[in-house]
Amino acid sequence: QVQLVESGGGLVQPGGSLRLSCAASGSIFSINTMGWFRQAPGKQRELVAIITSSAGTNYADSVKGRFTISRDNAKSPVYLQMNSLKPEDTAVYYCYLRQIGTNGGNYWGQGTQVTVSS
Known about the structure:
Layout: E1 3-7, E2 10-12, E3 18-25, E4 33-39, E5 46-52, E6 57-59, E7 67-70, E8 78-82, E9 91-99, E10 105-108, E11 112-116
Parallel strand pairs: 2-11
Antiparallel strand pairs: 1-3, 3-8, 4-5, 4-9, 5-6, 7-8, 9-10, 9-11
């Protein structure tokens, strides 16, 4: 069984920074995709950033140039460095893991709240 545990959320002023972390445990494949989604009140969950096993990345247009996703390898924690935060970045951020193959699947963390407010 796979578990994802996020940390690092909180309250920050506009223009500030936060770093989210997500640690995966259980049966983690050497080839997988991890990422971050977010959901603001009254809105659908949306992609923020993803990173593949080959370190390819993809970002939502709204966070390009401000957020950076990273990890050392496919079994390492994944991080989301968020700079120049805006009030519209306020949301619950969810860690995501996708593994394809036998016993693969899509997995979600419990979410961590990020609030950007003065």
